[in-house]
Write a structure and sequence with these properties.
Largest sheet: 6 strands, parallel
Strand order of the largest sheet: 3-6-7-8-9-10
Helix content: 25-40%
Shape: globular
Strand content: 5-15%
Radius of gyration: 21 Å
Number of strands: 10
């Protein structure tokens, strides 16, 4: 489509697809250049290569605090602002490519994060913010807790959301209380499965005791059921629908909402080879077959009725 409108303009492709499937992108995307990995360090050099016009970077790609704010002000309306306070994740879950895509973790200072929230609120009256970190609560004492305390000190009335999920074992009484006081409205927990005795093949993020403690801390802090949800993976290699049903039941027994997250097989993850073997689709030929909408690795034949059944259970 771009080439139809700008036939002589060079096209440079980056992002997650280019990072995970570089060979496929080079072969089929039609881009003049495919860039894998983080592009901040080299983007202006690419511009110089194609245009002959050179400008220096105005920030340090290795220091997250120096990054400029995203240009959300180009929108007619700013309904909410996504915030990243860090990049990367200390865990190495079998289904996740975070470590591959972000091999060098970075964190912003708590003061820098609070300054950005205040900026969008004062300049554009934004009240809703979504944290898109993979590990917002990691090293909470030096990161999340100072951020939350800084937000509270501003006296602002905000609504915070966690669509990328929070690490359950890090939700202490103090963290839960600060999240409630600072205005967290949508809490999503990265549970993935409630089959605690059989989860070693996918991750080591949380035990049953840690899950129970986190839920207790959240309720004690003042959160009600409407704000709390736990992600459950559906369609993992070898996973039965019965195990998903059991996980849904366990989460509901705790008084929080199960939120189904459909598994997408991802190259460069520990689970990729298992996914390739278990799938009826040729995942290695075309990334389109990794589309989680078709549950490419489930044992049972795809059924809209079964999906609707699971949704209704939630």
């Amino acid at each position: 489509t771009i080439r139809l409108i700008f036939p002589k303009t060079p096209v440079v492709l980056g992002g997650i697809y280019a990072g995970l499937c570089k060979e496929h992108a080079e072969k089929y995307s039609g881009a003049d250049r495919v860039v894998a990995g983080m592009g901040e360090k080299g983007i202006l050099n690419l511009v110089s290569d194609y245009t002959g016009f050179s400008v220096p970077l105005r920030f340090d790609p290795d220091i997250f605090d120096t990054y400029p704010y995203p240009a959300f002000d180009l929108q007619r309306e700013i309904g909410y602002v996504p915030i990243s306070t860090s990049r990367g994740c200390p865990f190495s879950c079998a289904y996740c490519a975070s470590n591959f895509l972000n091999p060098s973790p970075m964190k912003r200072s708590p003061e820098n994060v609070v300054e950005e929230i205040i900026y969008w609120h004062k300049m554009y009256t934004v009240r809703d913010f979504a944290f898109y970190d993979d590990a917002f609560l990691e090293d909470a004492k030096n990161h999340a807790i100072p951020i939350l305390e800084g937000i509270i000190k501003t006296g602002g009335k905000f609504c915070f959301h966690t669509p990328n999920a929070l690490h359950i074992r890090k939700i202490s009484k103090k963290v839960a209380k600060l999240m409630f006081q600072s205005g967290f409205t949508t809490i999503r927990l990265g549970l993935e499965t409630a089959a605690f005795a059989n989860r070693d093949d996918i991750d080591h993020k949380v035990t049953e005791k840690e899950f129970n403690r986190a839920v207790f801390n959240l309720f004690e802090a003042g959160f009600d059921k409407s704000r709390l949800g736990a992600y459950l993976l559906v369609g993992l290699p070898g996973q039965t629908m019965e195990s998903v049903e059991d996980s849904i039941g366990t989460v509901k027994q705790k008084g929080i909402t199960p939120v189904l997250a459909y598994y997408s097989p991802i190259p460069h993850t520990k689970m990729w080879e298992t996914a390739v073997i278990s799938s009826d689709y040729d995942l290695e030929v075309d990334p389109v077959f990794t589309n989680n909408a078709i549950l490419p690795c489930q044992n049972e034949k795809f059924s809209w009725q079964k999906i609707s059944y699971l949704k209704n259970l939630c």
